[in-house]
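REVIEWER CHECKLIST
Item 1: Sequence provided? yes
Item 2: Single chain? yes
Item 3: Sequence as submitted:
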Amino acid sequence: MSPPATTNGQTDGQHAATKIDFTARHPLLIFTFHNIINGQLTYTKETRHSLNPATAEPNPESPVTTQQDLDNAVAAAKKALKSWSQTTYEDRRQRLHAYADAFESYREDFVKLIIAEQGKAHSVAQDEFDRTLKMIRVTPTLELKEELVEDTEEKTATVRYVPIGVTCGLVPWNYPVLLAWVKIAPALYAGNTFILKPSPDTPYCGLKLVELAQQFFPPGVLQALAGGHELGPMFTVHPGIEKVSFTGSIETGKRVMESCAKTLKRVTLELGGNDAAIICEDVDIDQVAPAITTLALLNSGQICMDIKRVYIHEKIYDRFLAAMVAYSANFKVGPSTDPTNFIGPLQNATQYEKVQSFFSSIGTEGLKIAVGPSNPSSNGKAEGYGNGYFITPTIIDNPPDNARIVVEEPFGPIFPTMKWSDEEDVIARANDSKNGLGASVWSADTERAERMARRLEAGSVWVNMHFEVQPNVPYGGHKWSGLGMEWGLVGLKGWCNTQAVWVPKKKA
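Item 4: Structure as written out by the authors:
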């Protein structure tokens, strides 16, 4: 149904959510973005907006959640939990699959919405949609079976997995659709109720995802609240929320963990990465160099598991780097409304300025650019795009290991390549990081590559691939890259409390 008359996209009162509104040619041109509380589209007195990253122009208004709004959502989630937690896995599975079918019917609408608020390339937005759809469909096929771990003449002991309760997800701006459902699908399937908090920079997709869900889930089971940067701490300190799943930066993750400790919430953290790729001397340069370049620049470098450090064997270093430089010329920079562009804008001004600071470090640290901006004083800004947050793809040639571009994660289209000659040394260098999200080894000798990969300190290690994830395979970080796992059966159990059930065989 159409919303009542609005002012800046909002109005007082409530109305039932019966269908998602994608009636305009451009989804962000409709001012119909609302919180969803207890099955209702709700309106806030105060609103805010993010900026279109390709133009820096204002996006439509979105809600600014109040403490009362959050309290209402938590109360609704707690009420819904009583019956939702008692539903069968089969019932939850059917509802999630029905949602997936409806979600798929809005493919082009959500792809356009992803591009409009996040800025990513059309092909990458399509990929995000496909990965999300697979996540929603595969997660409820996992089985949380009870495990008989003790069976004697006197007694049995069984391990079972029960819902935690009212849970929430704090979702980042780089993958606003996929990383929402990475949290929602297992949370609901495990029998929890869930409140989604999208990033202040990308609130629109998350609100529409949950609006659509009201057709398939009882009121209060799945809700969404948007707002500014003050909203996250309101979630983490709320006594009625029993689990927080956060994806974002390491520094923010520390604050989330500290805040959750005050009420002993369960917490899962998926934080930053500084993924290393080790290139052995026996690789097929013509095949591997393009793959490495793509995996370092995917989504304009704004993926936690993008390749961030490339270690190339000294015997092939010059040829491999030349092949990467040549291949990078294929990546067109520009607004993602043009499907031929591959390097879209950085998502927000803060990230744009952070990445530009890495370009400032090039001069102060005396680093060498293999390929990058033609104007050294531009701080990486791609020319010709007005106020958009566009950065020229840049490769730094063999910086020292203590250079900022090696030690820190830029989260943008700039990365270093370094030489190596000794296996032990390069493994130590790859592991010399507080981060431990992902890493890969590339070699024609897969046994050698696997042996090296198994020594890398990361939550995911790949051989002759990178950024390979599947809904049935757990994903998460070691060291400062996170706490706990998401995805797969391991991730699903993270949305449960474990319970041991002891039963005597003899009657009392």
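Item 5: Key structural point noted by reviewer: Residues 436 and 479 are 6 Å apart (CA to CA).
Item 6: Recommendation: ____
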